[in-house]
Amino acid sequence: xxxxxxxxxxxxxxxxxxxxxxxxxxxxxxxxxxxxxxxxxxxxxxxxxxxxxxxxxxxxxxxxxxxxxxxxxxxxxxxxxxxxxxxxxxxxxxxxxxxxxxxxxxxxxxxxxxxxxxxxxxxxxxxxxxxxxxxxxxxxxxxxxxxxxxxxxxxxxxxxxxxxxxxxxxxxxxxxxxxxxxxxxxxxxxxxxxxxxxxxxxxxxxxxxxxxxxxxxxxxxxxxxxxxxxxxxxxxxxxxxxxxxxxxxxxxxxxxxxxxxxxxxxxxxxxxxxxxxxxx
Length: 280
Prior knowledge:
By secondary structure, this protein is of the alpha/beta class.
C-alpha cells in the first residue's frame, strides 16, 4: 500500500488519470491525499468530483478556495464566471449528491500514518498544529450544518481581518480561518496576510515573505503539504519542512504527486495550458 499526495487538479481529470497511471495507483490498496481545488478552470470538474468521491475512504481531500466558491455559487443559484467551467457540475443530475459530499470535506487533515498536515494554502504563524485542526474544525462544522452553512457562504468573501487573533469571533473568525487555510501565500513577520499577491517568493514586496518562512511559525517542527501557489518555484522546501504541490498543470505546467512512503515525487507535464498564466 502506498500513499500519494497530489497537488491542485482544477478539473483536469485526464491529467489526473495519466498521473495515477504513471504511479500505478491501485484504488483497492493505495491512498490519495489531495490538496484541494478539485474543480474550476479545467475541462472536467464534474468527472473529477465523481471520481474522487467514488474512491470513498481511499481519498482524502481538503477544500480549496475554488471548491468553496463552487459551493457558494450553488447555494446562491448562480453559475459564476463561464471561464471557470463549473456549469456542468451545477447542471448535473447528481449535483446535489456531489455538492453535499464536497461540503462535508475537511479544511485541514493530519495523516496518522505519515504524520503530515494537509492544507490547501497556509497556516497562520501563531497556530500550532493542534490549533490549526481545531480552527479548521470550527469552519467545517459551520459548512456542514444545514442551518448555518447559508450564512457562512454569505459572509465568506473579503480579505479582512488580515491577521489572526484568538479573540476573533463570529463571521470574522470563520472568514479569517478560511482565508488563511485556502488563500494564503505571503504575510509579514507578524502574520498580516496579503491575499492579492500571486507571484513567486523572490518578487514579493518588501516586508512580505512566504507564510512558511516566518521565523516564529509555531508549526515549524511539523511537515506540511499544501497546494494553491503555482508560482512557488519549488516543490520541497526542506529548511521549512513543507511541500508545495501545486505546479500549475492547468496553466501548462505539471501535475505533481508525492509518495509519502519514500519521499519520491512524480511529475506529469501538461500538453497545453487550459488557462492563460494568471493564477489565483
